[in-house]
UniProtKB/TrEMBL annotation, chain B:
Pfam families per UniProt: BPD_transp_1
This protein's name: Carbohydrate ABC transporter permease
Membrane topology label: Multi-pass membrane protein
Main location: membrane
Residues covered by region (Disordered): 1-21
Organism per entry: Streptomyces pathocidini
Compositional bias of kind Basic and acidic residues: 8-21
Entry's localization field: Cell membrane
Superkingdom: Bacteria
Keyword Transmembrane helix (UniProt): yes
Keywords: Cell membrane, Membrane, Transmembrane, Transmembrane helix, Transport
Length: 349, 309
């Protein structure tokens, strides 16, 4: 899931409290003769309606929630309990409940493992590289698209650049290998081919980080413009007009109207990226880990996968994943606090 | 919302789309923009084109080039014949189609029902349920805990393991709930006055008005199921149950099951590379086919639901 996918719901979290607290906007209907025979408008909360009658009133809606909630309870909240194996020596044949407790043993083993630290360093470096070289690209493209006044051209470009978001990483890696790999187009055009390799960017450890960033840009930067374009469109048109009438040229309008308009979104995305700093494209990297070798391409998520599912060190891997999850949640919290200090809205209030 | 706003804006602008106060851009700026955007579009399209051309190119041409073709010397559908008659790829295609159809239907049903119930103001328990769902963004279940759940449910090596663990996506749910909340409340009032139950209201009033968001969320789910690769690696030991993406992965990196075919004169007639690329094309085709039809709903569906603050 890309960053953009996570955005709106978290903003929703902020809006949630406000919305629920608002008084109902619809006119209150006359009170029903009895709670047992629900009337139109019964959804509006009335004082003195007990839990039992609320449940009876909403039973159809509650039934509708059952399949979806069952999913969340089993596959999210049920799964969260699986994290206890971070404190156990998990033996698959014995099961989670009966595996012996080991206290913090898995964490000590994890923090003593140089491979884990190598994966952590790789993750942090790649995250930083992405932040510097990927993060501004969708914003730049959005600003460019926004400035194109020929609507047809703009829509055409949008349709094209959104498309790669819908491709799987398997296909993307195949496409990139075909263009940039040792048997690929670029190598052929530069005079290689037929067994002769001039450039092979897929598999050369030196090219790993640039290639990861280029792939990310190719796949997600178009889709990433959506959130910025929405912010740009929400800027009040009359601000531009007023600035223009006051003699501000295009550059000053950009600086004083456009940029402040997208700043909250930029900060929001930065916070989310910070909370995600320990995750870098799991599927993308897992698919190419073997081509580049684990020394370059092992990140925390692939470390967890290989260590647990392939090598069977379940407890240690679960400890790594749990530590990562907790640090991520703390980072989001801290970044959000920091954004509030700066007087920004942040992810939630 | 961006695109919806865009539509309104078009009506008030001239063909050049420039409001009266805006100065005419310099030709050099315009040229720079045009060149940048053209290059962007070409860079997106080029890899697709190389893959398509290679999949149709004859074996000796691919061989001479060293593994690629920009324009097939003759258009050769042999690679597609191979893929569509090979047992492992056709079975994988069927698995992917089945999982995508069943999964999308199940996901849409659960998401619509839950989103509708949560979109009604004041439903009992609605707030706590919503908070529980939003919490999964902050702290998602990891790979190992998910694996343990699938394992303990006995779903390892079952096709359901490709569907159930990703059945409801919290983002899609929030998008749909937002869209339902945007529908005018009077509709529900009058339907309820007529004595319609919640399910009837949902089926006969809400869903027909929500085709756009259902199309977009359905596309997201379908693309998710179709593109899923790793969950099969994680949950399936039986490789004969692998979906297309996972088989494609083995085919492209290891050349699983591909043998070189030569003519009587010893000329390579069917390059393995063409077969790999034909599989890539087939695995991309459903998305390319559906995309143009759903793409116009992006404006109406997704963003009105999601981006509102």
């Amino acid at each position: 899931m890309s960053k953009i996918d996570r955005l709106p719901p978290v903003r929703e979290a902020g809006g949630e409290v406000g919305r629920e607290a608002e008084p109902p906007t619809r006119p209150a209907p006359p009170p029903p003769p009895s709670p047992a025979s629900p009337e139109p408008g019964r959804r509006i909360r009335r004082k003195g309606l007990g839990l039992g009658s609320s449940l009876r009133r909403d039973r159809a809606l509650l039934l509708m929630m059952v399949p979806g909630m069952a999913y969340f309870l089993v596959f999210h909240y049920g799964a969260l309990f699986g994290n206890v194996i971070a404190f156990k020596e998990y033996i698959p044949f014995v099961g989670v409940a009966d595996s012996p407790w080991v206290g913090l043993g898995n964490f000590t083993a994890l923090f003593a493992d140089p491979l884990f630290w190598r994966a952590t360093v790789n993750t942090l470096v790649l995250s930083a590289v992405q932040l510097v070289f990927y993060f501004p690209v969708p914003l730049a493209l959005a600003l460019l698209l926004h400035s194109v006044s020929w609507a047809r051209a703009r829509k055409f470009v949008q349709s094209v650049v959104y498309l790669p978001h819908f491709l799987s990483w398997v296909i993307l890696v195949a496409l990139f290998t075909q263009v940039l790999g040792g048997d690929g187009l670029l190598n052929g055009l530069l005079g290689g081919g037929d067994g002769k390799t001039v450039v092979d960017l897929v598999g050369n450890p030196e090219a790993f980080k640039p290639l990861m960033v280029v792939q990310l840009i190719w796949k997600e930067c178009g889709w990433g413009t959506i959130i910025f374009l929405a912010a740009l469109h929400n800027v009040d048109e009359s601000l531009y007009e007023a600035a223009a009438l006051d003699g501000a040229g295009p550059w000053r309008r950009f600086w004083h109207v456009t940029l402040p308009g997208v700043r909250p979104v930029v900060i929001l995305l930065l916070i989310l990226r910070l909370g995600d700093i320990l995750s870098v494209g799991f599927e993308q990297i897992l698919l190419q880990r073997d081509a580049f070798g684990p020394a370059t391409a092992e990140v925390i998520d692939t470390f967890v996968y290989y260590n647990a599912i392939v090598d069977g060190h379940w407890g240690v891997s679960a400890a790594a994943a749990l530590a990562k999850g907790v640090i991520g949640a703390v980072l989001i919290y801290a970044a959000n606090k920091f954004a509030h200090r700066l007087g920004e809205q942040g992810v939630y209030r | 919302m961006s695109l919806a706003v865009e539509d309104q804006q078009l009506k008030t602008e001239d063909r050049a789309g420039r409001p009266a106060w805006m100065e005419k851009p310099k030709p050099i700026t315009q040229a720079a923009k045009a060149v940048t955007l053209t290059l962007t579009v070409l860079m997106v399209i080029l890899p697709f084109w190389v893959v398509i051309a290679t999949s149709f190119a004859p074996g000796d041409q691919i061989n001479d080039n060293g593994g690629w073709a920009l324009w097939p010397r003759e258009w050769n559908v042999g690679a597609y014949d191979w893929v569509l008659s090979n047992e492992s790829t056709t079975r994988a295609l069927m698995v992917s189609l089945g999982v995508t159809i069943v999964g999308t239907a199940a996901s849409l049903a659960c998401t619509i029902l839950l989103a509708y119930a949560l979109a009604r103001p004041g439903v009992v328990g609605g707030r706590i349920v919503m908070l529980m769902i939003l919490f999964t963004f902050l702290f998602p279940a990891g790979m190992i805990p998910s694996y343990l759940v699938v394992y303990s449910l006995g779903l390892i090596d079952s096709y359901w393991s490709l569907i159930l663990p990703t059945m409801v996506n919290a983002f899609n749910l929030v998008v749909m709930r937002g869209f339902f909340q945007g529908l005018p409340g009077e509709l529900f009032e009058s339907a309820r006055l007529d004595g319609a139950g919640e399910l009837r209201i949902l089926l006969t009033i809400v869903m027909p008005l929500s085709k756009a968001v259902i199309a977009v969320v359905g596309l997201f789910y379908a693309v998710g199921y179709w593109n899923a690769w790793f969950n099969a690696v994680l949950y399936l030991n039986d490789t004969s149950k692998y979906p297309l993406q996972t088989v494609l992965r083995g085919l492209v990196t290891q050349g699983d099951g591909i043998t070189k075919e030569f003519s009587n004169e010893g000329v390579l007639t069917q390059a393995p590379q063409a077969i790999k690329m034909a599989t890539v094309v087939i695995a991309t085709m459903p998305i390319l086919l559906v995309y143009p039809f759903i793409q116009r709903y992006f404006a109406k569906g997704m963003l009105t639901g999601a981006v509102k603050s």
